[in-house]
Specification:
37 residues; mainly alpha
């Protein structure tokens, strides 16, 4: 890697995307559980 800053920024964005996807998935699961009650 010539520029480690670009690598870290890309990795940070990648982690944020994964966290966002997981949080969204959990929110939808919670909504489904509430609707079933």
């Amino acid at each position: 890697m010539d520029d480690p800053i670009i690598f870290f920024v890309g990795l940070f964005c990648f982690v944020l995307a994964i966290v966002g996807a997981v949080m969204t998935h959990l929110e939808f699961k919670n909504l489904e559980l509430q609707n079933k009650k």
